[in-house]
Amino acid sequence: MPKRRFLVLLLLFLTGISAGAARPDRAARAALADTLCQRANRHFGVKSRLSISRADRGQIVFGRTLSDYPWRDGDVAWLRAEIAAEWPQYSKEPAPRAIYCRGVALEEYVMPAIGRDGKAVPYPDRRKGERSYTVRRSGAPVFSKGLSGRHIAIWHSHGYCYYEKSDRWNWQRA
To answer: Of 66, 107, 109, 136, which has fewest CB within 10 angstroms of its CB?
Structure first.
């Protein structure tokens, strides 16, 4: 009986080791990150450096530099295809479908396309179903008066400006 218990425990232990070995280790994650980095640098025309902090349970978590690239709608599918093509060399697990950077899904980094006039093309906001043109701070306080809903410009001169009529610099409220 003790011999059988020992064999069962040994079998469970070895099964746990082989299941854990299916995930890519640190060297494999570094090699995969380097391959994906080279391809992303060519694809985007941006020079950056990628790192993978974790790759398991159907998700891959990149370091902060994944957000250096200008992500568009088709680019997320492109990266998924690149990961799926390279993944079998580094792991026995199925390729991860969820891609994260800084704890945020990669789809959240997708920027709107730019139109011919240089302005962002409206796109549906994934959270509310409305059309959005700019980045908006969520949870910002809403005021009924004052500067609410308006854009302000802050000049770097701190009130000291040049008056062309008098051809001199002066304090704005002097």
So the answer is: 136
Q: Is the dihedral of CA 96, 101, 107, 112 positive or negative?
A: negative
What is the DSSP code string of 97-130?
-EEEETTEEGGGGPPPPB-TTSSBPPEE-TTTSS
Place of tokens 């704890």: 103
Helix 73-86 with 26-44: angle, nearest 10 deg: 140
- C-alpha to C-alpha distance for 13 and 7, rounded to whole angstroms: 10
Q: Is 69 helix (H, G, I), strand (E, B) or coil?
A: coil
Give me the DSSP letters along 15-53: HHHHHHHTS--HHHHHHHHHHHHHHHHHHHS------EE
3-state secondary structure of 93: coil
Nearest to 133 by CA among 147, 144, 119: 119
Where is pLDDT greater, at 54 or 131?
54
Give the tens place of pLDDT for each residue, 5-18: 766 666 666 665 44
pLDDT score recorded for residue 23: 67
Give the pLDDT score at 174: 46
pLDDT over 70 at 138, yes or no = no
pLDDT for position 21: 44
* pTM for the model: 0.56
